[in-house]
Design brief:
The chain has nine helices and no strands. It is mostly helical. The chain has one domain.
């Protein structure tokens, strides 16, 4: 078949593919669900010292605090990134090869979070904190790239206010910037770096309130599910 005729036959299928985002979202949800489930494997069953009684079990469990912290934080961060990823595809009504590859980059880092959690659990000091924070930051930056590409290529729904697009971009950037800063802090004091992660909660709450206010200002956006 001549190339020109082949292109004519393929063009409609490419147009149809660009509007089909259900499989992309379903695949992403599956990868995120697997990653968040694998986190529990990093929790080890406490081992009692030889010759000790079960009475020391609470102490042994307490000594594993970094494992529980890593599990809880990783669960919450992956959950947050899932919420933000969902927000991205609520507003994207078509996609391109660029969207596919940026989404796969995001999933690549999501899949590595259980590994980073394992490093942090094994080395809950400078090395573990730096690796963990950098991996979470790269995940956030990849999601920011996905949103930036979609908005720049005008793949998001028509009528979405530019202010909402900017708030979304700022929110996507906020968490990874904080995490990257904590990685730098960890070089000098890992404990302060870990404590700085608490700031993720108020920072995301502030951006969430601003985003809701922006959505309420737009008739088109107010119909979008929260």
């Amino acid at each position: 078949m001549p190339y020109g005729r082949l292109s004519l036959h393929m063009a409609p299928s490419f147009r149809l593919e660009s509007t089909e985002t259900d499989r992309l979202v379903a695949f992403s949800d599956a990868v995120i669900a697997i990653a968040i489930t694998l986190l529990v494997l990093e929790l080890s069953v406490p081992t009692l010292p030889a010759g000790s009684t079960v009475a020391v079990l609470p102490t042994v469990i307490a000594e594993q605090w970094h494992e529980y912290l890593a599990y809880l934080l990783s669960f919450l961060v992956i959950a947050l990134y899932w919420v933000l990823h969902r927000r991205v595809f609520i507003h994207i009504d078509r996609h391109s090869r660029g969207i596919l590859w940026f989404n796969l980059l995001f999933l690549l880092f999501i899949a590595l979070i259980p590994y980073a959690t394992g490093v942090f659990v094994t080395y809950p000091s400078q090395l573990g904190v730096v690796v963990y924070a950098v991996m979470l930051a790269l995940t956030g930056f990849s999601l920011t790239l996905l949103w930036g590409y979609a908005s720049r290529k005008q793949l998001i729904e028509a009528g979405l206010a530019s202010r909402t697009v900017e708030i979304q971009a700022a929110r996507f950037l906020a968490s990874p910037i904080l995490l990257l800063m904590s990685a730098v802090i960890a070089v000098f004091d890992p404990t302060i770096a870990i404590l700085s992660w608490v700031l993720l909660v108020p920072i995301n709450a502030v951006f969430e309130s601003r985003l809701i206010a922006s959505l309420e200002d737009s008739p088109i956006e107010s119909e979008t599910p929260p």
